[in-house]
Amino acid sequence: METLVEGAVAEALRDGDGEAIRLYVAACTERMAPLFMGLRANAPGREADLDFYAESVRDLWHADRPLADAAERVRLLERFPELQPDEEGITDVADTYAFFAVLCLRYALLAHGSGSADDAVSCGHAALTAMGLLDQNVAGVSLLAEEQRLQSLSLRGDASSLWDASVTAGRERFRAVLGRLPRQACF
Predict the structure, then answer these.
(1) What is the mean pLDDT of residues 136-150?
(2) pTM higher than 0.85, yes or no?
(3) Less packed terminus of the chain by CB within 10 Å, N or C?
């Protein structure tokens, strides 16, 4: 499968250690988190999912060691409606970006627990795919290029500056998606 992750980034992940992989997926997921958190904030019955998602993203930043319960978290995440097959597919804007945020977290948890570079690349690919869709549908943004830049930075940056950049990028993404929602759906 060809991914959107730049070859140099994928190679660095494959050549890197577990901590580099864990930092990379933590940053990718942090940038995607506002999409899930913001788009599902008012969804009835999703309070536990929101708490679980936020806690998982927070725990991913402990890059010095793998999550001991990563496999269990993946199992719980796979119960989320966003990852359940649907005959009609995903057609709603909010559902599309919430799906990519959950998918990104799924691969991040897998990579964090196992140290798998392939799962890390899949995590990055989910983020890049979502940003590519946003670029196609929102005039004047270049979120795909920004995600590529931040993915490269995550392999050589320090955790603090990477976290700051990821939080800022996540907020920008959420604002871009909000601009695509029908007026009555905006929060």
Answers:
(1) 91
(2) yes
(3) N
Six-digit token string for 99: 């799906």
- Structural tokens at position 119: 């799962």
The secondary structure of residue 68, as a DSSP letter, is T
The region that residue 67 occupies, defined by phi over 0 for left and psi between -120 and 50 for alpha, beta otherwise, is beta
Report the distance separating Cα 98 and Cα 159, nearest Å: 25
Residues sharing a CB contact under 8 Å with residue 40, sequence separation 6 or more, in sequence order = 46, 49, 50, 98
Instruction: Give the whole-angstrom CA distance, residue 111 versus residue 157.
Output: 19
Q: Give, to the nearest 10 degrees, the angle between helix 18-40 and helix 47-60.
A: 150
Joined tokens for residue 107:
């691969």
d(CA 153, CA 14): 16
Residue type, 77: L
